[in-house]
Give the backbone structure.
Amino acid sequence: MSTLAAPPLVVSRTDVLARPPSTLWRDAVWRFSRNKLAVSSLAVVALLAIMAVFAELLAPARYDFSVLSEANQFPSGRHLFGTDAVGRDFLSRIIFGARVSLTVGISVQVIALCIGVTLGTLAGTFGGWLDYIIMRFVEVFTALPIWLFALFLISVWRGWDAIVGGGLINVILAIGLIGWIEICRLTRAQILSLREKEYVLAATAIGASHLEIARRHLLPNALAPLIVAVTLGIPTAIFTEAGLSFLGFGINDPLPSWGKMIADSLAYVRVYWYLGLFPTLALALTMLSFSFVGDGLRDALDPRMGERR
Amino acid sequence: MVVYLLGRLSGIVVVFIMVSMLAFVLMHSIPGGPFDEEKSPLPPAAKANILRKYGLDKPLWEQYALYMGSALRGDFGISFQSPTETVIQLIARTWPTSMQLGGLAILVAGTLGLTSGILAAVYQNSWIDYVVTFMSTLGLTVPNFVIALWLLLVFVVGLGWLPTGGWPGASSDDFKTLILPVVTLSLGPLALVARYTRSSLVEVLHAEYIRTARAKGLREHAVVLGHALKNAMIPLITVLLPQIPNLITGTIFVEVIFRVPGLGKFFVTSIYLRDYPMIMATMLLVATLWSTTYLLSDILYTVVDPRIRLYGRST
């Protein structure tokens, strides 16, 4: 206590104005920074992002560079994570795998945002038959487990190979076409509830323009849940990609996918245990840190939301 | 209530029709059919015959109408991958295995999840609570094929206690093969149950009637199990019930990893081989199952908690 300066007894008007106003975002940053788990997870996410962006600089070799005479080597000083069945440095493949995973995670969320926000806004703003049709579509997608649907889409895609192209784009499109449901529902619900809020009425009453209301009141309130949904959507997309690749319907060799690497390791699991261990650890760590960041953001942005699933 | 039920049921029908149309149209938009063979193409006359046999030469809407007509009578056609069986026979042969696996997993998840959830709530903020919270976070976040591999590495490769895979009745009569698939599959729902039991029990334990029960001198386990748990169970129903159809498809990975000959594994081969009738039937089956369990869980909700009434349309 002694280190703190005594508060001035008389608060002058300039002091009050000089203190930065407490905004939603400033509060959120403060609350987030107090959450140790979320902050350390954010550090892991940042590390993953660095790995993904600078893979060429960080990895000892390229992901598809194979030396057949060095195949199936256990972890050693020369190859920290060992080598796979065709003699590719496994650490390099894990590092490049981060790029694939993050690319899928982020691109899927971009697609999901485009579709979800558009449809959600349409449904929420216009209502009526448009709302009915969009919501039935949402129900159709919720009536099927995402796995079944993704597998089904991929099976259709495989027939269209010539049109749609390689594995990575297939996977991103398939997952993106399923991933918009939550965002659409959220956007619609936000628009419906925010329109009725008293503070919007109050802002109108004191003469704020539509633009001002949208910028100051609607957007920040609608944005917070969307940010959380997108952050939590990234690990789901990464997991779905890994699962599809695991089953052999996702990303193809030589492009490294953690899911594919896990599937490939199964045949040798009794001998070359490290081939299974490293990609599973990478995947688990990614999923956990993204989820913790998402949970932390949710708690920070809206402390009242609490546990909601 | 009746109005509500009718509304929900008609909703299910609309969704069912949309799912079937979507799946049907998408599947038939694929260039090339199941009888386009590259290595030894059939003579055109023979191919035309086969196409006629399977009704693939008719216009799309007619194929759809015919298909739905027979599907409603329980006839989903003949599977392309094993032409000696109808799709229904194929499903009847493989589904029981998946159901055994899923059923055992639900059982394990329900009992262990409930127990660990109760323990975590009663000993809140103790080491038990932290272990349960940690494990349920792991179970909810980490994909089950990752967990399967870890279990495989520890119990099969490391300790050598358990076999790598198989299923009693199919490949061996060794019941030890059950353990790993069931444990892997149950971890996700177990984590969910534990987390919900814990949070709802913690909330209930602060209620006033619990204080009353304690004040009149009831023993602690009577308070927790007799009074608190009953109300804490309500959210559990909505959590556990929708897991049932989830488990049927969630078994895909577990069945592939541990070589369990169930429906999930068959579905994967159907996708490889583009076995339309089989894919269609599985999609429709799961969609129906999924929507009915959701409806069922809403109805059960009112049974467990008479304060909840269902009316109007749900959003």
